[in-house]
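Ex. 9. Protein: HicA protein.
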Amino acid sequence: MNSKQRKTLAAIFKDPVSGTIEWTAIENLLVAAGADLIEGNGSRVKFEKDGIIASFHRPHPAKEAKRYQVRDAREFLMQIGVTP
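Predicted structure tokens for HicA protein:
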């Protein structure tokens, strides 16, 4: 995990939940944490690691993740054992 991904990880676990984290940074972090990226239809994307699956819709037209997506990413990271 590089320094940018560590900063993204810290931002995801920060309270109150941020609405300014770019979705691509979250995707890069989840892949760096060992999750497999599974493209779905349209903006749907899934991440899978050790049988644990998280499903998201990429935000559009904005590039920042919505707060609920950041919370869901935080939950997925905790389930796969990745914390700051």
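Check your answer against this statement. The two ends are 11 Å apart (CA to CA).
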